Structure formats: C-alpha cells, structure tokens
Amino acid sequence: MRPVRLHGLQTSLEIFDGGNGVYGVIKRAIVISNGFSGAESQCIGLVRALGLSSRYSLHRVTRPRGGINEWLRWLPVSIHKKVDYFINRIYGGRWRCNLTVQEPKAVNLSHDRIGLSNILEADATHIAMMACETFEKDGPLLVVASGRDTIPVASSIRQLAPNYVFVVQIQHPRTRLNRFDLVITPHHDYYPLTPHAQEQIPWFLRRWITPREPPDRHVILTVGALHRADSVAIRNAASAWHDELAPLPKPLLVVNIGGPTSSCQYGVDLAKQLTDMLHNVLWSCGSVRVSFSRRTPQKVSKILMQKFITNPKVHIWDGEGANPHLGHLAWADAFVITADSVSMLSEACSTGKPVYVIGAECCTWKFADFQKRLLGREVVKQFTGKEDISKTWSYSPLNDAAEAASQVIQALAERGWTIQA
C-alpha cells in the first residue's frame, strides 16, 4: 500500500494500487458534459456500448447565464465564473439584462435509469477524491467527457488521481492529448492536416490551426459522432412508439431539419428547394414525418409548415409532447437529413436504412470532408427530388460507438484493467 496525496488537499488515502485482480475491474462511470444534448449523447453512447448503461452518474460543467454572460462564453469556465462573481459583487443583480436565454435542452435519460434530479456539478477535486476513497471497494473509475468546457475538468481529474481513473475525452481537445488516457474524435477533425486543407490556409496561419500533429496512440478515430441510439434503444423506441407510428402507410419517410452553422450555411433558398423536392417524391411515400431541431430558423420551418401543413400525408412535429426522434429512427423506412448535423446523420446511418442528404454543397472545411466520407462509404446519397422512396439499397451501417468501445477495452487491457459489463 502507498499513500495518495491530491495536490494540496488535506487528506491521505491508504489504498491498494489498481493493477490487478478485483482492483482492476471497472464497474462504474462518470459522464461529464457541458449540458448540451449532443455532447451528453456521445458520452452516454460510449457508456452504453461498454455495458455500463445503468451504472453511471451524470455531471455537468455549468456557466453563469443571463445578461452579459452570453458574450463571455469564449472565456475558460473558471475565469468566466470569477468575472461573474466580481461583477455581481459590485453591481448585484442589477447588471444582468432582462434577456431571454435558451437553456440547453435536457436529454431524456429515462431509459438509462437516471433523472435530471441526479445531475451534479462537475467538480474535478471532488470526483478525484471519490475515485480514490472508493477504489478499494469499487475499483477504478471510468470518466467520459465531451464538450470544450469539460476539457479542464476531465484533465484535472486524471492529473489528481492518475492511478484510479481512466479518462476518455470525446471530441478533439485540440492540444496536449497526453492529458487524457484516450481521445475519441471523427476522422474529419484531422482534415486541417490534409493537403487540400493546407492549400486553403495562408502559410502564416498554418501553425495556429489545430490539430497540428497526426493522431497518435491516444486517439480513436470514428466516421461520425457517437450516440445513444443503439439496438436496445431502438428496440425500446419501436415498442414505445408502436401505436402511433406502426399504423402509418408505408414507406414512411422521416425528414430531419437542423440549422445553418458557420461551416454549413444555408437559409430560405434551401428550405424552398427542400419543399419542392419533397413535393416531387410524395407520390412514392405512404407518409412523411418532419421534425425540426432547436437550431432550425423560424423562417426555414415556416416555409415547410406553409407548404405541407394541410397535406394529409405529411405530419410536422410541433415540438410539443414527447420527442419522436428515437421512434422515427425505429419506424422510418428512409430519411432525408440536412447536411449540417453530424449527429443526426450518424444516427440515421447506423440504422442501415436509406439516408438522403440535402445541403452538402453548402458545407465547407471539415464538414465537407465528413459529407465526402459518407458518400465514399455509400451510406448516404444526395437528395435530388427524383427518388422513389420505396426503393432501397444496402450498406454497412455505421457502428462507431461499439467500435470505439472495443478499442477502449483494449486500451484498458494494456493497463491491466477490465470492464464488468
């Protein structure tokens, strides 16, 4: 036995080193997110693929919100909180403007046996202490994090308790990969290193574009984003949505519409193009279900609503009630998805069903590389409005979460640890 001292903390823990036997078995996990559904979904997808879906706790890194805080989100979280504290001490609550702030949409985690009341603030010192104090009883702790704001928290946990945790950061942290045990990120995050990308960057800026080095042994590359829409979740959703979706005339076409981003810009022109294309393929559809994301501009959703609201074949989800997204994945026969959303495309391409993309020509930089990769694997096709939706094609579905999980297990084995799935 040897003492473990956590950098200035007034404690010393006499516990066993975790290389072998019962002390090398991971039976629990902590998920750390920035509060946004996409980040949490990636973490939960990996945890589920590792067989720990009922044995994890969810922690979030939170920022001050309201007023000028919305303009300070570029600051590191710790500095942002200090700035908010000092301004609040000087001006009290008066400095906060009466702005309506859209909170991150909460993930429905009921099928993962966790509720919003169980979500904790992500505190690196507390988590590291807990990992050390419970190691002898519960073994090592798996920490899975995603989102820019989680990077300092996850890396601090590993620094404080390196012998008692295994830290996986999802999405590229840009620098210093050795702060984590593993990094899981899509191939297109390394697009800046390709010759084509280098030609687009002025030579004097190239040293500032990340990542600067090819992936090393710390990196697991995926095609798309990890997600929690695995076979179990789809099977459960098929049952939950059976009464509403099973009776619909076939084929069922699901249309998922995101919103423009800095690397995939579009507006009403694409919305008008999509409505025309959908109108042209309606003859081959039994029914159509349309969903918008929280990023969808009102001017885009309004165009589709005006065009199809009275069409008996088309149902547009108005955002009220339960989100039908997983039910759509389970019951759809084909998908049309806007090119801006890596997560929606990744989920749909894991079903093995036909996936059509619209707006890929609007994408630039690494998002264009992602679209090119999907087309190269023949898991998607460009939506033209000339399709017969009743026709299908076969491809190897994306299975990024399971493939990443197998590499995590291998990395744990190299350390002498296993997972009790």
From TrEMBL:
What is the protein name given in its UniProt record? Mitochondrial fission protein ELM1
| One Pfam family per UniProt | Mito_fiss_Elm1
Q: Provide the GO biological process annotations.
A: mitochondrial fission
Provide the Gene Ontology terms for cellular component. mitochondrial outer membrane
Superkingdom in the source lineage? Eukaryota
